[in-house]
Structure formats: C-alpha cells, structure tokens
Amino acid sequence: MDYEFTENRAGKDEVYEHLVKCNRSFIPALNSRVDIKLYTEKIMNGAVRFEAWFNDRLIGLVAVYLNDNTRKVAYVTNVSVEPVHTGKGLAKKLVMRSIKRASQMSFEQLQLEVSVNNQPAVNLYKDLGFKKIEDTTDESYKLALKLN
Known about the structure:
Low-confidence stretches: none
Largest sheet: 7 strands, mixed
Radius of gyration: 14 Å
Number of helices: 4
CATH topology: Aminopeptidase
CATH architecture: 3-Layer(aba) Sandwich
CATH class: Alpha Beta
Strand order of the largest sheet: 1-2-3-4-5-7-6
Mean pLDDT: 95
Shape: globular
Helix content: 25-40%
CATH superfamily: Gcn5-related N-acetyltransferase (GNAT)
Structural class: alpha+beta
Number of strands: 7
Number of domains: 1
C-alpha cells in the first residue's frame, strides 16, 4: 500500500471524521474523555499535525503542541491510526516525524500521556526511547523523551 505523509494538510472536517473513526481505538474511548468537536478545534488551532493518507483519505494523525518555548517541552496530544491500517508502522513513522520536528525547533523534551491498558502504544513509545516520568492516575502514565 502506498501511503502519503504530510503536515497540516487535513481540514477540520477530515480531522473530525478521522477522530470519530478512531474513537473506539483509544483506551478509554476518546468520546468518554473529550468532546470530539471541541478537541478537533483545539488541534486545528494549536497543534502541528503529522498526517498519513491513503487514497486521499486521512488515516493516521499525530498532533503535537510545539508552543512551550519557555520550558522547551513539546506535547503529543494525539496519536491515532484507523483500525484497518494499524500494524503497518504508521504510528511509529508519524511519531518519529514529530520527534524530528521538535528537535529541529530546539525543544528539549517531548511528553505524552498513555493509558496503562494500551500496551501496543506503551511498547511503541518505549521502543522510541520514551521513559515514564510519572503515574498521572491509576489509568495512565506520563512519558517523556529527551531531545537533542
């Protein structure tokens, strides 16, 4: 399969539709934690989006806030791949693109939060060098990757 990788190409409707399609892939489901429409707005207004496309359809999305220039900490708010396209390394490629961008912008750390029950995601982040910095709740970890 031929995938296309872009940055910030998707429109608001495409991001919203993607998040709805991936809703149940999140642990817990995305709509149990956020209003997906409002979350889409927040991503569109404040995050850099690393996107994977298949047949002109957004099928993978990593959204990162690269705006804390004081602390030099970037924050991954979303990693999602449509279920039919999982297991093909897309999430890893997209996260790696976000790591490269944060490094290029002289950020010192990339942080994210992940459910303790989402073992594939935990494994992915550990493989990329993320380390646990705190247990935010009984259900999630905060992980960080030192950059540069």
